[in-house]
């Protein structure tokens, strides 16, 4: 899809700022996603964020994502600390990424030629982060955008009969560890007991297969309520986990691997909550609607994107050449208790 440009549909100065010219706010095309906060001069961005934290939180709940674009590259740790500070470790997630610092990770190490479908982080778990922070460390020269989409609008656009099925039946996600990500790397441990403890805490069923293979399953809701705004959101990754959406190259590799012929050990799949199969046509409808709501921008080095993980989904476009996006996650929300940690 073509990349939209900053349309400047709305502009206002930050309320209460000592200098009204420090940061300019503009909406991003008709979707108003993300809200862009652009420094017109050399400004201490972390200090400005700390001074306007409550207002920025309200902006985030309205728009779903904020893009900070500064005249000078801001300190990522300081920005996150100013906005939240309550960091969470990435443990047990489905993404392929590496730890590069204290609670800092590469956004994804999925093969660069593949598209990562839009999703909300850990929506397949009962414990997910409320906030995602991305920083562009190495600016991509060829594609590599991080598309985002409003989960409220996606929910409203899903055909009623499909929306009702997802809401009433829920989903069961299954994951097999081994082909592209071992359980040791996913859970950052060599201990089976620690894996079992994490899975028990998150309501995830564990099945050890053979000497060193792990399969997990977990039943989750497909629609959720935001704990602050009270809004209903589309909050699942059925269109990414379903076996019909698996990349053909990965499918071919698994089909010919002696260790991976059992589909139960394939990287991921999703079923209705009762374990019955979801037809591929339904998944295609959902995937198309999610993509229709995607907006994207070209990264610039130093950009910081803040995403409300429930209000907005994110993904990654294919790319070639250098690209490095860093990720921090914050403010764990435990769905079973309805509390924010």
Number of distinct beta strands: 22
Broad CATH class of the largest domain: Alpha Beta
Span of the ends, CA to CA: 38 Å
When the domains are counted, the total is 2
Mean pLDDT: 86
How big a fraction of the residues is strand? 25-35%
Sketch the major β-sheet.
11 strands, mixed
Based on secondary structure, the structural category is: alpha+beta
Quickly give the CATH architecture of the largest domain. 4-Layer Sandwich
Instruction: Show unreliable segments.
Output: 1-18
CATH homologous group name of the largest domain? Clavaminate synthase-like
Number of distinct helices: 10
CATH topology of the largest domain: Double-stranded beta-helix
The shape is globular
Q: Which value, in Å, is the CA radius of gyration?
A: 20 Å
Helix content: 10-25%
Give a quick precis of the structure.
This protein is of the alpha+beta class and about 350 residues long.
Kindly list the characteristics that best describe this protein.
disordered N terminus, four-stranded antiparallel β-sheet, 25% helix, 22 strands, 30% strand, 341 residues, Double-stranded beta-helix, alpha+beta, eleven-stranded mixed β-sheet, 2 domains, globular
If you had to describe this structure to a student in words, what would you say it looks like?
The chain has 341 residues and is α+β, with helices and mostly antiparallel strands. The chain has two domains: 11-139 and 295-334, Clavaminate synthase-like (Double-stranded beta-helix, 4-Layer Sandwich), CATH 3.60.130; 154-289, Clavaminate synthase-like (Double-stranded beta-helix), CATH 3.60.130. The protein has ten helices and 22 strands. The chain has helices at residues 45-51, 53-63, 76-83, 151-157, 160-169, 183-187, 192-201, 238-241, 248-256, 280-292, and strands at 11-12, 23-26, 35-39, 65-69, 87-88, 99-101, 104-106, 116-119, 127-138, 142-143, 148-150, 171-177, 205-209, 213-220, 223-225, 232-234, 268-272, 304-308, 312-316, 319-320, 324-334, 339-340. Strands 1, 2, 3, 4, 5, 6, 7, 9, 18, 21 and 22 form an eleven-stranded mixed β-sheet that branches. Helix 1 (45-51) runs parallel beside helix 3. 40% of the residues are buried. Mean pLDDT is 86; it is low at 1-18.
